Each structure stands twice: as structure tokens, then as C-alpha cells.
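Milestone 3.1: sequence recovery, worked example.
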């Protein structure tokens, strides 16, 4: 490995058992403030709907809250689900954010609904039945952000003339082709959709066309991280993550559950296999194991940035996990500079 690797946070404003979103939001801000101190590059929030354990549905509002409580870390969306919104509204919202917090706002865009189809119908209304053109809507956003749009009949105020980086998010090869064709940076959701990760980043790199926004391919891999002082404690803490994903595959979603000593009585062998497949890119362990796992991953994939998401029940344990992860990444980056 011959380059420094940036490291960042993906937060879903997760709601743990016994808590409410009102409890969760200050914890997200506390995490962002610590992440800023620990050298994290960016703090992204994801748009999801109708999920009892995820409180980041009003993503742009929460981005403003986090950006307002921090001073240097980049804050953005991982992502805004573009089919749910008119490009003009997104341009105005992120133009407002970028005006309030200049040079610190990222706009990550996804093409999925961020929820189930019934919820998507409630969000979009009759637009649900319209064919959605993801690349065309991205181009509309770029137009609204451009200074050249000042003579147009429809303008994004605020937003016009602001340099707001656009990222393409994906969990399949389709989004990789879009990001490559448009010359935009690419973030892959390998934390829950690992199947097409390697193929997608290969397609992105092979087909990348330089643009005014980006001259060379840039890949973020989002991964699950559960770090603790020992491998055993990390494995125990990770049972909360496994219970969360079990709820995803069974449709029996719950608030984030406390860790348990064993999953044996919670899932069957088929469920365990399905969860562990989704968690292919989960890095769980003490500092030494974490470092070894990450070095292998980085050498195999060549990604430019690692974005960690950590579903850990206890807030202090989650903070400690992110602190350990930053220490490990700094150690890896020191090796790269030797």
C-alpha cells in the first residue's frame, strides 16, 4: 500500500432499545465532535424511512444539526435518495447548508427509495409510477449548482454558483457505470450489500471518464466496524449488529438490541449464514486483529477511503470503537509513508 487512506463515519442515528430519537441525536453530535478530534475526514448521514431503529429520515435537517455543532469535519449525505425528491428542492436544501457551513458539505446521492415499496409510494405519491432517470436528475442538480444557470427561468437560491461535491452511492454495478460516465466519486455500500462490491469498483475504475469535478477515480468503501480492547469483547459487542441484520432479513425489525454472550438461541443456521454473508465486510476485533484485517482489505481493493459504520448498543463503547479505529488507521497510514 503506497498511499494514505482517509477514514470517515457513516451514521444512521441509530435508536437503541430503551431510547428515542430525542436521545439519539445528541449522541450522533457527540460522536461527530469526537470524530473531528480523531482525524476523521467526513461524517455522513443516510436517508432511510419506516425503520424503527433508524432516525436519520430527515437527512438534510440532521446534517445541519451536526454541521452546526462541529467546526472542521465535512458533513453530508450517504445518501439522499434522489427518486424521493425534486432536484430543485435538493439543490436549495444543500445550497442552504453549504451557505451556512461553506466548504464542509457533501452531497451523496442514491437511486434506491431507502425503504420498502409501500413507504416509497407514500413519499412519492403519483410520482411513484413515473419512470425515474437517475443520471438526468444528477445533471439537473449540477445545472442548478452552476453559475451559468443564473439566466435560467428556474434557479436554485441558495445553491447557484456553490461548489458542493456530488458523490454517487451504490450497492450494484449500475451505479458504478453512472459514476464512471459522469466522472464523479463513488461510494459503495459494502456494509450491507457486499455481493457486487469488487465487480462494481472494477467497472467504475475501468470506465471512468475524467471530468471538471474529478480527474481520477475515487472510491469509498463503507464497512462495519466493531472495535474493542480485546477480540472477545468486540465479538460480544458485535452481537447487537448481528441482531440488527437478523431483523432485516426476517422482516422483524427491532430497536438496536443489547449484546448477548451467544447468538445460538436467537437465530438458526440459515439465518446465521444469511447475516454473515451480508456482513462480509465487517471488521470486528481488538486493535491488532483490526489492523491485520484492514491491511488485507486495503491491499486487495485499493480503495481511497474507508467509511466506518458501527452499530454498538452502548454509546461509550461506540465512541471507544471509533477511537480505536482511528488509531489503527493512523498506524496503517504511517506504514504507507515509510
Amino acid at each position: 500500500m503506497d498511499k494514505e487512506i482517509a477514514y470517515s463515519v457513516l451514521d444512521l442515528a441509530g435508536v437503541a432499545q430503551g431510547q428515542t430519537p430525542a436521545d439519539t441525536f445528541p449522541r450522533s453530535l457527540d460522536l461527530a465532535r469526537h470524530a473531528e478530534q480523531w482525524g476523521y475526514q467526513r461524517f455522513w448521514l443516510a436517508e432511510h424511512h419506516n425503520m424503527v431503529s433508524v432516525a436519520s429520515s430527515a437527512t438534510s435537517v440532521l446534517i445541519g444539526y451536526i454541521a452546526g455543532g462541529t467546526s472542521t469535519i465535512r458533513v453530508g449525505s450517504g445518501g439522499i435518495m434522489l427518486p424521493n425528491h425534486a432536484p430543485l428542492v435538493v439543490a436549495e436544501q444543500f445550497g442552504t447548508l453549504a451557505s451556512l457551513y461553506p466548504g464542509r458539505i457533501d452531497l451523496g446521492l442514491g437511486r434506491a427509495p431507502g425503504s420498502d415499496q409501500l413507504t416509497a409510494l407514500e413519499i412519492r405519491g403519483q410520482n411513484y409510477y413515473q419512470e425515474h432517470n437517475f443520471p438526468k436528475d444528477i445533471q439537473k442538480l449540477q445545472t442548478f449548482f452552476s453559475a451559468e444557470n443564473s439566466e435560467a427561468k428556474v434557479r436554485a437560491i441558495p445553491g447557484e454558483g456553490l461548489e458542493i461535491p456530488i458523490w454517487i452511492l451504490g450497492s450494484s454495478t449500475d451505479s458504478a457505470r453512472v459514476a464512471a460516465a459522469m466522472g464523479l466519486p463513488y461510494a459503495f455500500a459494502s456494509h450491507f450489500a457486499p455481493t457486487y462490491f469488487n465487480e462494481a469498483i472494477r467497472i467504475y475504475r475501468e470506465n471512468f471518464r475524467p471530468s471538471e469535478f474529478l480527474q481520477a477515480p475515487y472510491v469509498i468503501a463503507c464497512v462495519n466496524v466493531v472495535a474493542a480492547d480485546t477480540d472477545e469483547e468486540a465479538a460480544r459487542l458485535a452481537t447487537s449488529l448481528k441482531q440488527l441484520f437478523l431483523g432485516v432479513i426476517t422482516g422483524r425489525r427491532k430497536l438496536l438490541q443489547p449484546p448477548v454472550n451467544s447468538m445460538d438461541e436467537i437465530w438458526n443456521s440459515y439465518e446465521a449464514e444469511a447475516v454473515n454473508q451480508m456482513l462480509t465486510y465487517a471488521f470486528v476485533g481488538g486493535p491488532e486483529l483490526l489492523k491485520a484485517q484492514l491491511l488485507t482489505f486495503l491491499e486487495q481493493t485499493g480503495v481511497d477511503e474507508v467509511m466506518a459504520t458501527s452499530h454498538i448498543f452502548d454509546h461509550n463503547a461506540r465512541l471507544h470503537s471509533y477511537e480505536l479505529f482511528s488509531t489503527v488507521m493512523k498506524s496503517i497510514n504511517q506504514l504507507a509513508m515509510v
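The longest strand covers residues 219-227. The first helix runs from residue 21 to 37.
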